[in-house]
């Protein structure tokens, strides 16, 4: 079975983490959101009513002048292996906005962002570090004549394009 880039990237990450010494404590967290019709939604929230509430984007100025962008109240789930990551990603993908058209039976109507936060703690050196990786799946750019989109699909296609 062909695996996608998210699976392969996270599998490689776990392989690299397994090669670390026992003095390195690792914690990995995953979150997943979508941008649909110009609203940000959490794909890991349990209730559909919670998922339909748009999320607030926060911009924080950092001491060295950069700006950090984060999403307020997004669900993060700790994962310990690739199987747990796959479970989280499958849940998020089930919650994505999709619709059929003449080109694809299950065309994604949204941009999806999987964020992976890696916390490392070296107990021997007392060095702590945090890294973040974002895996982005952009919605397909579709031609309306080709897909025969109507009304709601037309609004979605305009937001996607």
From TrEMBL:
Gene3D superfamilies: Kinesin motor domain (3.40.850.10)
GO molecular function: ATP binding; microtubule binding; microtubule motor activity
GO cellular component terms attached to this protein's record: microtubule cytoskeleton
Family matches, as InterPro entries: Kinesin-like_fam, Kinesin_motor_CS, Kinesin_motor_dom, Kinesin_motor_dom_sf, P-loop_NTPase
Keywords recorded for this protein, A-Z: ATP-binding, Motor protein, Nucleotide-binding
Keyword Repeat attributed: no
Domain Kinesin motor intervals: 1-161
SMART domains given in the database record: KISc
GO terms for biological process, alphabetical: microtubule-based movement
Coiled-coil positions: none
Family: Belongs to the TRAFAC class myosin-kinesin ATPase superfamily. Kinesin family.
Protein name: Kinesin motor domain-containing protein
